[in-house]
Amino acid sequence: MPGFAARQIADWLYKKEISSIEEMTNLSKKMRELLSNDYEIGLSGPVSFSESKDGTKKYLYRVLTDKFIETAYIPEDDRATICVSSQAGCKMGCVFCMTGKQGFQGNLSSNEILNQFRSLPEFKQLTNMVFMGMGEPLDNLTEVLKSLEILTGEWGYGWSPSRITVSTVGMVKKIPEFLEKSRCHLAVSLHSPFDEERKQLMPIQKTNTVKEVIDLIKSYGFTGQRRVSFEYILFKGINDSPRHVKELVRILNGIRCRINIIRFHSIPGSDLRSPDVKATIAFREALNAKGMIATIRSSRGVDINAACGLLSTLEQNKG
Ligand code: SF4
Prior knowledge:
Layout: H1 4-15, H2 29-38, E1 48-51, E2 57-63, E3 67-75, E4 80-83, E5 87-89, H3 98-102, E6 104-107, H4 110-118, E7 128-131, H5 141-152, E8 164-168, H6 175-181, E9 185-189, H7 195-201, H8 210-220, E10 228-234, H9 242-252, E11 257-263, H10 277-289, E12 293-297, H11 310-318
The structure holds iron/sulfur cluster.
Iron/sulfur cluster (SF4) is lined by residues 90, 92-94, 97, 99-100, 134-136, 169.
């Protein structure tokens, strides 16, 4: 096919939002036939959803033939965020996470990542995207980078990279490639500043220490539009003491960043609990008093199994 057809095809797929190759009417019949022989549009809508009182929706998509992943739609006053999954299940085994308990079931293709966005009923309302659903995005970096290229390319969906955040547990070997090949924001899941305590929560700490991650981030130097943030799920009696505040301030010293404090959604079979609202605010204020930018992420969708992995586990168990 002639080179210019690539631009035409991208235009149909990402700007005109068609749902069949037949609709690409500026391609010759022969070209459409050629395309149809080997490709399909690849759209497939969610199989079910639940809606919270606060407007948050959680969609279930079928992937990899017989697996399920979750995608969240989170409307707020001035924005509407989609939270996408990058893998079915996850290898990382974080003890507080239901997806971690599912084990790894497979990497999503860039198509399966983008389908969550494009097939979302609220697609047209979306203003922001976070890769914070099921899976560790940097463990499926090739497909995640492909999806980011299509999302941010002027020939693709044309989104500004500043509207997209990719999270990681801190895969030291993959972060440099992510930083080099995309301009999207990075969010690092921290959850404890202490080696031994973090190991208990996140097995990744055994091979990729938070010190290595922070040294790497310091050497990269986040400037301009690009931001780094640290996610911190607060667990009662585990990581919510003044000692933790002091160490967080020490290790993040010199990094222009934000700490997102997240209230924990309980999961079955775990004793971990969230501190109450008052203690959560006190933790944030202690960080603020030390000059850190720290905010509490509002809890959304608590009434619809908001903890990521719960809904798909229920669906999986049905089979
Ligand atoms: S928190 Fe993220 S990285 Fe950890 S097990 Fe769950 S999905 Fe995987």
